[in-house]
Amino acid sequence: MKDNAIWETWFEKNKEEMIRTADDIFCHPELSEKELYSSKCLADFLAERGFSIQWNIAGFATSFIAQWGDGKPILGFLAEYDALPGLGQKAVPKHHPETGPGHGCGHNLLGTACAGAACALKAQMEKAGTTGTIRVYGCPAEEIVIGKIRMNEQGAFEDLSAAITWHPFDRNRVSYDIWLSQDIKNYKFYGTTAHAAKNPEMGRSALDAAELMNVGVNYLREHVPDDVRMHYAYTSPNGPANIVPDFASTNYFIRSSKHERTQNASRRVDDCARGAALMTGTRVEIERVTQNKEMKVNRTLAEVFYEAMKRIPLPEHTEEELAFAKEISEQAGLHNDGVYFAGLEPLEDEPVVLPIGTDVSDVSHTVPTIMLSAAALCKGTPLHHWSATAQAGMSIGHKAMLYVAKCMALGSWMLVQQPEKLKEAWEDFGKE
Q: Do 136 and 37 sit in the same domain of this protein?
């Protein structure tokens, strides 16, 4: 592209500030709905570069919309910045935990790259005198799968021409993936306490009910479609064994690649809970925490952004970074056979089912949506792990962030230049 120089110059001038912002968020990790410092970091970055800021979107104190420009197309970048509990970690290749949360999903990089891409696109459009609107959505609480869902329910994305985002992974690719539909629930059992030795007949064990529910769900696994995933954790009780517990609770994640299958499995899990309560003489309350649909992929956007990714040079890693990758692979037991980073993966012919979920998926059912992936982690690094946190805070993560920000900026500029591609994307969106 002949006018690459405009936004390339922007990145050269601002890359150190992007790294500083990502590191600032990394050093101040905040849990979902509590991202006061992190959201302000990104909002200030954007405000300093000419974006207007609107706060408190959909009732979240830590959500914002940063906007520049006027008219169509309206391109929205979906930024995230929440951290994960218990994953505090220094940016070193050994397990060196710090108390509190940490960026084991690389959201310090995710949000910053989206902000940088939007600013570079703004510079390009200003130079070219092109009309259009750029938005950066500050999206809280992705890790608990509520931020974009509530924002979407309240219409925050409905006038977009397209939504653009990315996620740190161990590969460089267009995420032409079906992220799973999810139903997340709490099951609360209420019984009657009693002395477990002297008067056990007086008690009705809430813990028995929770255990029987889980036994039922484990039998249910044989009778659901292959892509259905059901996992649980006990969230209480923690009392002594000689008291019949009058309260017990579990948290369930129910997932599949189709929303209808997820909901069907979820109803059957509910039946297991009700049956367990009936068997034990207890009472159960079923609380839905959140739910999301599966990702709706868009072939046109995938092809446009794949072309953009092909045009942007991949990061080159130094000997120090390769040594870091080698050591962290050994320390964390990562499986990569000594190949720590690879090139751009080809765009798949058919969508790939990805065994995790995200609240971005609900946005994809409102407007055409594209997600990219960049190797902020060496091969084999799992998300939600200390080794992911460590890499998100050092130069391996920084390089991926800058690379994918350029890819998102270029792909978005290609959409601005080719309005017919946005039309095609909406035609794809209308297909079932």
A: yes
